[in-house]
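SEVERITY: medium
COMPONENT: batch folding queue
REPORTER: lab tech (J.R.)

DESCRIPTION
The queue accepted two submissions in a row. Attaching both inputs and their returned structure tokens so the on-call engineer can compare them side by side.

ATTACHMENT 1
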Amino acid sequence: MTEQITYAAAGVDVEAGDKAVELMKASVRRATRPEVLGGLGGFAGMFDATAIARMDRPVLATSTDGVGTKVAIAQALDIHDTIGFDLVGMVVDDIVVCGAEPLFMTDYIACGKVVPERIAAIVGGIARACEQARVALVGGETAEHPGLLDPDEYDCAGAATGVVEYADILSPDRIREGDVILGLASSGLHSNGYSLVRRVIAHAGWALDREVAEFGRTLGEELLTPTRVYAADLVDLLRDPSVVAGGGVHGLSHVTGGGLAANLARVLPQGLHARVDRATWTPPAVFATVQSLGNVPQSDIERTLNQGVGFVALVPADAVGATTAFLDARGIATWVMGQVHDADRAPIDAGHEVIHGAKGVDGGSVQLVGVHR
């Protein structure tokens, strides 16, 4: 008799997937907004666009991203309830850069085997981060890929949509000579550069459970620190009356892959140059540790890791005080790190690289000068 081959025999457990959905329901219910229609389990997430329709000229903004190889740290430590903050931060914080308010998000998790409790932990983290960002988690998908991924392996990605009035878009033409460059502290490595970080610690022979005095905790705990999610605070900053009275925010940059200089250059218009002084801040210990362990060149570390700066705001001088006060009150350390100059008159320090544009954007230029204090 010919053997019967079932879906379960092929490695896909439909019942485990259903159990995972049941376990995540409570978390997802909290990550909502009044505009969300329907509930978990529909074929599509629905969002009432009535408020958008009342805008003068609504412009939708969208972004998609993943977590990268940071998931390998979560898997090695068997801790899965924080990786969602990395996913949400990478997606919704990109949307805020253009001045848009993120509205809703969907996620996708591919795994070698559905372990309901693990999937629920991942989605629970995504939901908590969405709740913090005031973004609705309107749907998602978990796919079991036996034979393609090992049973304990998974990867996740997400996409989000936001909206902004056309007149309020933070385009490069808002940025002016004399604008002040503010650094917003990161929570650590965030979710970029982990291929380098993992290679360095493997080369050094460091285990994830190694206690590191400079961190005040284990290496694994430091590496798994969740990405700071800035979205809700920055949306509120753009609308804050005291900030607007000082001239408002002229530009924002999310410091992700490519590092500080490259991402700042992406939002500058041609003809402007940003001069950033490293002496204005001290990167957290994890950055110096990675650089020292791997003998990583300065230029490479700055192109790979955020060096303690998760976001940059460009504001007129009259808005600096209100902006820093607002963000400090939200628990985001903020400091003046430089200024925007006319490119033809900008002071250029010999021996320091000048970055011109990045990721296909032919924008302005950026130079990091000095040394960290």
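ATTACHMENT 2
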Amino acid sequence: MGTDGILLGAETLRGQYPVDAVRTVGRICAEAETVYNQSLHFKKVARHVGEPMAHEESVASSAVRSAMKVKAAAIVVFTFSGRAARVNC
């Protein structure tokens, strides 16, 4: 039903046009964000998940709520396994 994040792997940097690849992904993200109401989607997901939330859902939910309050442009997730970045919030 959509994408919560985009992971650019090492192959992005090893290709023949790494800067162009990242620039293109950035333009795609910017365009997608102009037509998607993230705040509304988050509220629907939060209602669906309900209480109690799993630890990972709680951390992701708090990050999203904080980002919305301060009008952050992005949430950056550092992860070794990729699990934290895959939480659907």
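NOTES FROM REPORTER
The radius of gyration is 15 Å.
No errors were logged for either attachment.
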